[in-house]
Specification:
Strand 15 and strand 16 form a beta hairpin. This protein starts with a helix and ends with a strand. The longest helix has 39 residues. It is built from eight helices and 25 strands. By secondary structure, it is of the alpha+beta class. It is 20% helix and 37% strand. The protein has a six-stranded mixed beta barrel. The protein has a four-stranded mixed sheet with strand order 2-1-4-3, with helices on one face.
Length: 449
Amino acid sequence: MKKQSNVAAKSRTKKLIATAIATLVVLAVFTSTVFADSYGKYNVTIVDGGEKTTIVTTAKEPIDILKTAGITLASDDKMDITAFAGGEGGTIVINRLNTVNVKFDGKVQTYDVYAPTVGEAIDEIGLTVPDESSANYKFSDIVKDGMVIEIKSAPYVTLVTGDSTAKYAKTSGTVEDLIKLVGIKLAKYDYTEPALDAQLKEGMTVKFFKVVYLTETKNEKIKFKTVEKEDSELEVGETQVVTKGKNGSKSMTYEVKYVNGKAAKKTVLKEVVKSKAKAQVVKVGTKQVEVAEAEPEQETTTQAASTSSTATTSNKKSGTKKSASKSSSNTDVTPNGVKSYNGMTLGQKFEGRYTRYCMCAQCCGVETGVTASGKRVWYNMPDPHYVALNWLPMGSVIKLNGTNYTVVDRGGGGLSAVGTADVFTPEGHAACYRLGCGSCTIEIVRFGW
């Protein structure tokens, strides 16, 4: 019986020990689980577009934390985790890329910004806005994609690009900062005035010059030259074309410098003659022609009648008889039957003014020795009594202060007024000044050739 009692006691003792061990195991597992869950969770603050959210998470990677919070990033958005530590907590800042439109001085400029508030966006762009009263939003307002920030008044600089002029509310930084603000990309030869490193100042005007070099090839004509040959059979002033000239052609390759779209400089790179020019041969007359002396201007019919007796006596003494009714036209002017032109009549007189010119480039623009009618002139030739004016047809003859002149040339707008004339002076430019100009009486002797 004693032995049996000891066996039973030992059996009970073993059961108690087993129960105790099981209990301890369960407690250990429970305690471990509870402490593990408590240790793995922590708080994270997320700032998204100026709005704050705090979550409790066990995730350690920022992307996983954002997924837990139901926040998605776009491809251009930025995440700032400088104030965050995985497993410990902190703040994750999300900078969203938004497009804002800034309106100033009637011009709207578009910018991309990451700033969460209007005030920060203005600073990020680099604009100078004195205070909130100068804008249509408070500086603390949250930036919304596509919003229009209107700047009512602000210090500014003016930017000139080609034919375009615009004002920008920016007075800090350099000219280069302004160029970047506007979105202009500088190429190799582009430049500004003042230079890029110049400091911006209120009221400054900055000019931008876009410079492009292009290679251009063009076909151009080679103008023919005129070869003159003297001919004693032709009268002085007459010409005759013997061989007609012909222009040639050539291919020209240039390097052209364009500044703001306008050609500023052209450099020849290559010249290839495709066909040579053929000279024009012209006979030039050298035969001298006597010019008849101009008769003194006759008295009017009324005056001649009142002095007819005296005139007759005088003529008798000289052995020559003159008629008071004789035409004022010179006998060497061949009539052509035209009696009127553009409201004017043959024999009509005008009180006008005359000037003088010669064949030099200063008078004619270019020294060719050829008048508008084709008549040849040269220095110190016998006075051909030519005149330039625009109000009568070529070949007309006028009597200017008693001397006949043939219309063979044209002039500027001043010679379009009736009564004006420019007298050709073969002695040259100095003689024009010496002989001078002045008032005159002009009578129409003939209309045209």
